[in-house]
Specification:
Elements: H1 2-16, E1 20-37, H2 39-42, H3 47-57, E2 60-63, E3 69-74, E4 77-82, H4 92-98, H5 102-105, E5 108-115, E6 120-127, E7 133-146, H6 150-165, H7 169-177, H8 179-182, H9 191-212
Antiparallel strand pairs: 1-2, 1-7, 3-4, 5-6
């Protein structure tokens, strides 16, 4: 299962490394919405400073509708409401990645609240002056597409179907999370564990034989 997992990851990585090619002409695919500086802020002497903060906490949404609305049920009726969009509220562990300057830190406030669903306390930071930014909707233009390798795509598809057909995904996840377990000697294994190992080895051999053909 570990070898199957590594094989699948190597194929995915190879596909990602193929790169991109330009698309002529560019194609419009829906709309995108993100934050920009408000007009008065953009014309102020501090525009560059707040633009630098925005680049670190900006968010983008995509939609096939220009009004960015979704259907919700209200009193047995379906109505359209606008999707909520906020600036990024980074958790405490993520703040270090933003590489904020000492002055930028002063514009963030520490927050914490109890998460009833996960039964833990969430801690994050919020930007204290979100009024400086407004949402802007623009066309989502696709100017490049991924380079495709048909032989590679066929191999990825064949491996994925083989894993799903033999229901090997749970065994792969178990081997990935507890790889040390699969390296133990059979001496300390139960009959059930030995049967799992035997089935996994047979599945790998079946896959290899199909690969050679």
């Amino acid at each position: 299962m570990i070898r199957l997992d590594k094989r699948q990851k190597s194929l995915w990585k190879k596909r990602q490394s193929l790169g991109w090619e330009p698309l002529h002409p560019p194609v419009m695919r829906g709309w995108k919405r993100s934050f920009v500086l408000r007009e008065d802020v953009a014309s102020s002497p501090r525009a560059a400073f707040f633009e630098g903060i925005l680049q670190k906490i900006n968010t983008t949404q995509y939609s096939h509708r220009k009004d960015f609305t979704v259907k919700k049920r209200y009193r047995r009726k379906k109505i359209r409401v606008e999707r909520e969009q906020r600036l990024l509220s980074p958790p405490t562990y993520y703040m270090r990645r933003l590489q904020l300057t000492r002055e930028e830190w002063t514009y963030f406030e520490y927050k914490e609240a109890w998460n009833l669903k996960d039964k833990r306390k969430d801690r994050w930071y919020e930007f204290t002056e979100p009024w400086r930014y407004v949402l802007r909707v623009e066309k989502n233009m696709i100017a490049q597409v991924r380079i495709r390798d048909e032989a590679l795509e066929a191999e990825i598809d064949r491996l994925g179907k083989d894993i799903e057909r033999q229901c090997l995904r749970p065994a792969i996840l178990k081997a990935r999370s507890k790889s040390y377990w699969w390296r133990r000697r059979e001496r300390g294994l139960t009959h059930k564990d030995k049967a799992i190992l035997k089935n996994m080895e047979e599945s790998w051999q079946n896959y290899k034989s199909g690969e050679r053909t």
